Structures are given as structure tokens and as C-alpha cells.
Amino acid sequence: MKTLGNILWFVLGGALMGLGWWFAGILALITIVGIPWAKACFVIGQFAFFPFGKEVVSRKMLTGKDDIGTGTLGLLGNVVWFVFVGIWLAIGHVMSALACFITIIGIPFGIQHLKLAIIALAPIGMTVVAKD
């Protein structure tokens, strides 16, 4: 079922938002200082292409210890991210969610877009894991 969900998701908007994440990652890479944000963009972008069967969790919850992305520097990085890129990706996901909510079949996709909108606001310190 998750394979069918991922295929429908990809065709009905997931590809566009995944490319949005990757575009933000490429822009971050160009600046050199944006490499940590670029890594997060590519990881979350891959998730945005095929989200069903996976989830995003805090690395601190996963490993049980702090790292550079889950501490004070991660918080600062998320603030910078929010101001320059995060708000725009979140708006894109909310607009996509509203479009999905028009049909009954699109409701699960709209919910997934809203989850991605929340992640778009602060992706530093997060990682994608399989839902098992």
C-alpha cells in the first residue's frame, strides 16, 4: 500500500515539492557556509519525494545524545533557515495541502504536506527513518 501511496504522491505533487527542497539545497551549497542546510535539504527532499513508510525524527531522540545539529548551533541554524528558506517551503507545502484537501482521495496527501510544512520550519537536527 505504501508503494501505491508513494507513486500517487510523487505524481500528484510530491515531485514538485521534492524539487523545491533540492533547489533550496543547491542554493545553500553555492554559498559554502550553507552546506549544513544543504545536507538537511537533500535528506528531507528525498523524503518529500517518497514519504509514505518513513518518518522524520529528532536525531537526539534517535541516538539519545546531542550533536552539533541538536544543540545550540542547531537552534541558531534553524532560526537562520526559517528566515531565509523555511517559511517559503512551508507555505508551498500548505498550499499543496489545501489543493489536496479538495478531493477525498487527496486528504492523506494533504496531511502529509502539513507534516512536511512543520518540518520545513526547522529541519536541522532531524533525520528520516523507516516506520517499523
Keywords summarizing the entry:
132 residues; mainly alpha; two-stranded antiparallel sheet; 70% helix; 8% strand; globular; UCP028777; cell membrane
Q: What would your notes on this structure say?
A:
Residues 4-54, 76-125 form the Inner membrane component domain. It is a multi-pass membrane protein. With 132 residues, the chain is mainly alpha-helical. It has one domain (2-130). Helix content is 70%, strand content 8%. It has helices at 2-30, 35-49, 59-63, 72-100, 107-121; strands at 54-58, 126-130. The chain has a two-stranded antiparallel sheet with strand order 1-2. The longest helix has 29 residues, at 2-30.
Overall pLDDT confidence: 89
Helix coverage percent of residues?
A: over 70%
Shape: globular
How much β-strand is present in the residues? 5-15%
Radius of gyration, in angstroms, nearest whole number: 15 Å
Please list the strands of the largest sheet in the order they lie side by side: 1-2
Number of strands: 2
Low-confidence stretches: none
Question: End-to-end span in angstroms?
Answer: 15 Å
Subcellular location: Cell inner membrane
Keywords: Cell inner membrane, Cell membrane, Membrane, Transmembrane, Transmembrane helix
Organism: Sulfuriferula nivalis
Membrane topology: Multi-pass membrane protein
